[in-house]
Amino acid sequence: MKTLGYAALSATSPLAPFAFERRALRPNDVAMEILYCGVCHSDLHTSRNDWGWTSFPNVPGHEIVGRVIEVGGEVTQHAVGDIVAVGCLVDSCQHCDQCHGGEEQYCRNGRTDTYNSPDRISGEITKGGYSKHIVVREEFVLSVPPGLDPARTGPLLCAGITTYSPLRTWNVGPGSRVGVIGLGGLGHMAVKLAAAMGAHVTVLSRSTDKQADALALGADSLLASSDKRAMAAAQASFDLIIDTVPVKHDLNPYLPLLDINGTLVIVGQVGPLAEPHTAHLILGRRSIAGSLIGGIAQTQELLDFCARKNIHPDCEMIRMDQVHEAFERMEKADVRYRFVIDMASLQA
Ligand code: NAP
Ligand code: ZN
Fold first, then answer.
1. Sheet order of strands, 258-266 included
2. Which protein residue's CA is at the shortest distance from atom 1 of ligand 1?
3. Does residue 161 line the site of ligand 1, with CB under 6 A?
4. Tell me: the pLDDT tens digits for 169-228?
5. For 52, which of 4, 79, 148, 150 is 20 to 30 Å away at the CA?
6. Ligand 1 touching residue 268 (CB < 6 A)
7. DSSP secondary-structure letter at 164?
8. What is the pTM of this model?
């Protein structure tokens, strides 16, 4: 199937129109016309080869919502016309303990990412949602429940599940004290989801600029990490802190904010951090953890949770040809709070 997308041809070239082919349908495949795709900071990292593992040309995009246009002969879960979604994963081995446990993101035999990953059968590098069409095996295609607005559902597929998963892992519920470092795409979803679970939520932002937004999103307060006195006053007051900062940074100012047994879970920066001082960990039995997106079953659970609670990301709709500007604004943390590409704007 011929399709059109936007690709980075090298780490230094801006994304540009790129014609390519999607594979012919395998019996268990679903083909969809992409309607919307969210813009994640990982799209920017990968396009610029920040992590050193990008294959070019790179077509990013893993917050995908579309309409089914064709299904393979063995597909049972989706039908032509359905509104469906695809997140960060398009395949896994399906037989290891992690896949059996619904955590395909930790597949022992290597997950297949939606873009920049070798296809398990053809070896071709996967291409993501900044395109008109995509073909994905049915187990990795999610159903968008009727209560969700398709135009604002995309960001749940990465920003949403990446923050929902640690909230569930660390059993956040009524009375939990949750901090969120960085109020961007992931951060604003962490706030909405933790608040919906009944937690007491504090945004840890670099300044007080986003104070009104934080409260409007459902946080109880905002703590500016630049305010040393306020940071000292907040010591030992969190059970869980979700850290979404996308660059190298220092955890030492944040670790004392955890109560005894508290955990700081990193979902942002992949790579080195400034050295954490172990006294912060030892003197309060505190932990530093990491977490990667979430499994397929849990992603469907999140979509259903958001439909039930009427939770939508705050989206700014853009045209495909505005993605370069969107990347530049995202780097300056000038997005409130997720760009979504209207794929109807991409014409041959
Ligand atoms: P984003 O929308 O750009 O938000 C990041 C936020 O971090 C900003 O809004 C800003 O918040 C804060 N920040 C930015 N630059 C900073 C700096 N130099 N120092 C301190 N804080 C800074 O990004 P995103 O899409 O939420 O993604 C965040 C990170 O998560 C990226 O690295 C992305 O690759 C990663 N990610 C990980 C997973 C996973 O599975 N673990 C999944 C998706 C994304 P304030 O203005 O409030 O300070
Ligand atoms: Zn993402």
1. 221-224, 200-205, 177-181, 238-243, 258-266, 287-290
2. 184
3. no
4. 999 999 999 999 999 999 999 999 999 999 999 999 999 999 999 999 999 999 999 999
5. 4
6. yes
7. H
8. 0.97
